[in-house]
Design brief:
Elements (H helix, E strand, L loop, with lengths): L2 H7 L9 H18 L22 H25 L6 H10 L4 H4 E4 L2 E4 L8 H11 L4 H9 L11 H17 L7
Antiparallel strand pairs: 1-2
Helix pairs in contact: 2-4, 2-6, 3-4, 3-8, 4-7, 4-8, 6-7, 7-8
């Protein structure tokens, strides 16, 4: 997908003030889409999950919601990090929120209009595949780490303030997304 279209789909890319980080983040998302067979015409069909019956939440909607809440809550809660002398980067939070689920673009694929699991989805769940894509795109290790540890795979891992923040918001948004639905 061309980068201009990504900016239209996810205006929050403009929230990343570091030009290099913004460009690398967009490159990573475009690379993930390409690897999974997603493009401007079909990306809205990418699901956030296939593990819950009748889940109508798209990957785009989930990423947009996680990013919007991260931006809003960063501005509201930064005072605590500042008060306690904890380094806390808004750019890393925004980039991490936008990219935390890029691995789902390879975990889920589309072929002939049918959405399903990618061939290696059990071996390469989205935190791992997303972290590899982020590294391939040249993103800093803080973002690669955030992507790799944002799901249950990161339960016993070290977390940066930014990875904890994005992970917490992601879990909250996901749980709201599947509320009332039956797990497969």
């Amino acid at each position: 997908m061309e980068l201009k279209r990504l900016e239209q789909l996810f205006p929050a890319f403009s929230e990343i003030t570091n030009d290099t980080l913004r460009e690398q983040s967009m490159k990573a998302m475009a690379l993930a889409m390409e690897k999974g067979g997603w493009n401007a015409d079909n990306i809205m069909l990418c699901p956030v999950t296939l593990n819950w019956k009748d889940c109508d939440v798209s990957w785009v909607e989930h990423v947009t919601d996680v990013t919007a809440l991260c931006v809003m809550e960063f501005d509201a809660l930064r005072k605590y990090y500042d008060r306690h002398g904890v380094a806390f980067s808004r750019d890393l939070v925004v980039a991490g929120a936008l990219l935390h689920d890029i691995g789902k673009l390879t975990e889920f694929t589309i072929q002939d209009g049918v959405v399903g699991h990618g061939k290696d989805f059990e071996l390469m769940r989205h935190p791992l595949s997303g972290a590899l894509i982020a590294a391939e795109a040249g993103l800093p290790t803080e973002i690669v780490h955030l992507i790799a540890t944002h799901s249950f795979e990161g339960d016993k891992s070290y977390h940066t303030p930014e990875s904890t923040f994005v992970r917490t918001v992601d879990i909250f948004v996901f749980n709201c997304s599947v509320a009332g639905l039956e797990k497969r």
